[in-house]
Amino acid sequence: MKEPDLDLPLAEWIVLAIMAERPSHGFAIASLTAEGAEIGEFWYVSRPMVYRSITRLVERGLITPVGSEEGNRGPQRMIYAATPSAKATVDRWLGEPVAQLFDVRAELTCKLLLLQRRAASPSHLVERQRVVIDEIEESLRAKEHVGDYLPRAIYAWRLEHVRAARRFLDAVDVDGDVDSTRPAVTTG
Asked: Could you give the angle at which helices 10-21 and 109-117 cross, rounded to 10 degrees?
């Protein structure tokens, strides 16, 4: 069996994570990732992309067919399950903070949604993500006064993104209610 590939596109991670919850078929996953649906509300994955992801995950040995069921209309639906090693890989991925600031919007929010589906606390991921955000901020602060007006403006823009990411992390509801113990993030 192939070793799980840790460099999957986000759509494939989403499909794999849903199948790691329980065996499923493409139509059910596409229903979750459709525009306005539970996951699709925040990160849309088209039906064709779901089926391409399933094909790639099978090719990589991360999911395997386990049966089929009759569809309401049309052909039988193939049901797939994540392999035990793929489930462990998904668990690790869900706990890893994103390394790049621009991945907060897509990858981190998807991880948080998938953790919520599992009724798993995101607190460990959020705390690890805070460390990464702090490191990004430190790196940007070292450069914020370098160069002429344009580089300074770009670093100021990136620092504002850091502050927005920190406010997002502050707003994540980790205990079922608003965390009033965290100080408000200042933007100035």
From this structure: 10
